[in-house]
Amino acid sequence: AAMLPALRRCRPGPVPLPALAAALGPGPVPGLCPGWSPQAVPARGRKTRHDPPSKSKASRVKLPPPVDPEELVVVLERYRQYRLVLNALRAEFRAEVLQKKREERLAAEDSVEEQEEHRRLMAWNAEENARQQARREERARKEEEEQKKRKLEIAEKQARKMEAFLEEKEKEVLQLQEEAKNFITPENLEARIEECLDNPRNYNFAIDKDGRIVKRTVLS
């Protein structure tokens, strides 16, 4: 607990030996190492790299693990393919980044011209839209006029047909009224009988191809 305040006050460089020795107690003094810092203090229970190996491990010889030659060939081939794919991806990404930078530079250079061209094209587009709209309205107006004209012609034709039909029916009515004068009614039945008896007609005759009477029998 008494060592923590002393460690917080430590800085790289010269270390006040009396104060540090009093704080750490008996033992090796860290101030003997000029570059000593709190991070270089070894953890408790671990050896430093300069300590000799333990007696149980002094005669041990470290050997690399055995490698299967066939497996090594497969691993090397896969690693080669991996490097090829990785290099290809890096080249693709690098080319894409360069292309984007080039496009941005060209866009920045041509932005003024493109904006002017865009404004000109938008103005032309607006004029063309207005012209097409006028053409559509004119075409719609003509179609409407033609449709009204066709409807009027159809109505006039129907009116003429109806008028002709009424005239024909009127003529039929007049003809029937004229023929009705010769109809036999209960009132004139006796007179018509007397008229037929006084004026007998002979329908027993023969005609030729021209409709002339060639032979007639005499009434008895």
UniProtKB/TrEMBL annotation:
UniProt keyword DNA repair present: no
InterPro entries xrefs: Ribosomal_mS26
Keywords tagged on the record: Mitochondrion, Ribonucleoprotein, Ribosomal protein, Transit peptide
Location of the region described as Disordered in the Swiss-Prot/TrEMBL record: 35-64, 128-150
Compartments it resides in: Mitochondrion
A single cellular component GO annotation: mitochondrial small ribosomal subunit
Family of the protein in this entry: Belongs to the mitochondrion-specific ribosomal protein mS26 family.
Name of protein: Small ribosomal subunit protein mS26
Organism in which the protein naturally occurs: Sylvia atricapilla
Gene giving rise to this polypeptide: Mrps26
